[in-house]
Design brief:
The complex is a heterodimer.
Chain A (H helix, E strand, L loop, with lengths): L3 E2 L4 E5 L4 E7 L6 E7 L6 E7 L4 E4 L2 E6 L4 E6 L8 E8 L9 E2 L3 E6 L1
Parallel strand pairs in A: 2-11
Antiparallel strand pairs in A: 1-3, 3-8, 4-5, 4-9, 6-7, 7-8, 9-10, 9-11
Chain B lengths: L3 E4 L2 E4 L5 E7 L4 E9 L5 E8 L5 E2 L8 E7 L2 E6 L8 E9 L7 E3 L3 E5 L1
Chain lengths: 114, 117
């Protein structure tokens, strides 16, 4: 039972354009969401997060949108740069859970073409 | 800040041997550390949650006698793969949670590639 889903295994965009990465979740108890970026053979790097009390969080070129009613979040990268090419993982957790476990999606490979 | 290291980065061992992987939080205290494994083109699968000074909590389907976890200090957790077999070959990643942060952010190590021959 996959509680966090990233239905697009890959995405290709042109440099300078917007990249939109999508994520859906099924567990209504999740109330904190994170995006991580990962290069091959490296650990994930934290990008941006959002609490369920918000519907948008912005940090530079990265913006995360949360639609709680649809159980959907998205990561927007604008403008996209070739260095953004990596696998992006969406993760979700429950605040107040004793262990703060993260549940990850399968990731989306983003390729930004020069 | 919030740097997590792992050692070794890569290990090759013979079937039947045991391998220890270390995870360290370098500039913060981590009351909780997590161990994941990742198969090619798959998601990160949580194996266990490690709390300093107490027994680890294993996810369903993970053999606790095979994957021994020790979290002896606020900056170090170890994962020992006992009697390793080729099917244990994988990319193992640890993460640590900074107890001073209220959010659920975890900081990840660079991972350890284990190959069992």
């Amino acid at each position: 039972d996959q509680q966090v889903k990233q239905n697009s295994p890959s995405l290709s965009v042109q440099e300078g354009r917007i990249s939109i990465l999508n994520c859906d979740y099924t567990n209504s108890m999740f109330d904190y969401f994170l995006w991580y970026k990962k290069y091959p053979a490296e650990g994930p790097t934290f990008l941006i997060s959002i609490s369920s009390i918000k519907d948008k969080n912005e940090d530079g070129r990265f913006t995360v949108f949360l639609n709680k009613s649809a159980k959907h979040l998205s990561l927007h990268i604008v403008p996209s740069q070739p260095g953004d090419s990596a696998v992006y993982f969406c993760a979700a957790s429950r605040s107040g859970g004793s262990n703060y476990k993260l549940t990850f999606g399968k990731g989306t490979l983003l390729t930004v073409n020069p | 800040g919030a740097v997590v290291s792992q050692h070794p980065s890569r290990v090759i061992c013979k079937s039947g041997t045991s391998v220890k992987i270390e995870c360290r939080s370098l500039d913060f205290q981590a009351t909780t550390m997590f161990w994941y494994r990742q198969f090619p083109k798959q998601s990160l699968m949580l194996m266990a949650t490690s709390n300093e000074g107490s027994k680890a909590t294993y996810e369903q389907g993970v053999e606790k006698d095979k994957f021994l976890i020790n979290h002896a200090s606020l900056t170090l957790s170890t994962l020992t793969v006992t009697s390793a077999h080729p099917e244990d070959s994988s990319f193992y990643i640890c993460s640590a949670r900074d107890a001073s942060y209220l959010d659920n952010e975890q900081f990840f190590g660079p991972g350890t590639r284990l190959t069992v021959l």
